[in-house]
Amino acid sequence: MNRTGQVPFGKRDRLIAELTEQIRSGRLARGEQLPGENQIAETYQVSRGTVRSALSELQRQELIATRSGVGSFVTFDGVTLDQTVGWATALADSGFDISTELLSIERTTDAELSERFGLGEFIAIRRLRRDRSAGPVSVETSLIPAIGELRELPDEGLLDGSITATLLSAGLRAGAGDQRIGTKALDAEMAALLERPEGELFLQAVRTSVTAEGELVEQVTSLLDPNRFQFHLTFGRP
Q1: Which of 61, 73, 118, 164 has the most other CB atoms within 10 Å of its CB?
Q2: Is the pLDDT of residue 111 over 60?
Q3: Comparing C-alpha atoms, which of 107, 117, 110 is closest to residue 150?
Q4: What's the predicted TM-score (pTM) here?
Q5: Considering only CA atoms, which of 138, 150, 137, 149 is closest in space to residue 106?
Q6: Burial code of 115-139, b = ≥16 C-beta within 10 A, e = fewer?
Q7: What is the tens place of the pLDDT at every residue in 112-146?
Q8: What is the DSSP string of 59-110?
């Protein structure tokens, strides 16, 4: 005989669901500290072990961050960014008040890219991303092949102000890529642009896109404020 019916919803799952709803609805806002484990346990009539397990799951889902000896804080901001279009574009598309300032377009060389892709010259496009309420959030430098019509970019500028549109117009479409993440101390020039002290550590993300045939489309190097951004990699099946 087969029994059908609703699977019991355990105390841990109920606690996760309740806290998730409070966070996603904004009742627990980004940056707000959650009550302590004892208070949560008393409020929801569960054990401290259940509370710890629930908080661990919320942290895995990137809804909160827990600081040892301090407590748990909401990190969810209501927005999921699509990395397939690059973090900055996704951030702007998600409703943040982001402005983009084009700093320069010029021809340049890059020994590593030349060796990897067999190209002699590149076009470097540097842009500053700024949150209108909080100031600069990124400086990014895009290197694209100086081939065909792209060679004229320093004189003619980007198509519709967009690197993506310019690349598509030149027949370059990203089909694959990789991204490397590390840290970099700001030099004097970058510190001035980002309005930060020289030597401050920033996240550095280097994202390289190639065509389906393996030809270079674009390499973007972004400097990101580590207090505002984090990278989360997953593996295996969820």
Answers
A1: 164
A2: yes
A3: 107
A4: 0.61
A5: 150
A6: eebebeebbbbbbbbbbeeeebbbb
A7: 999 999 999 999 999 998 877 778 888 999 999 99
A8: HHTTSEEEETTTEEEE---S----GGG-HHHHHHHTT--EEEEEEEEEEE--
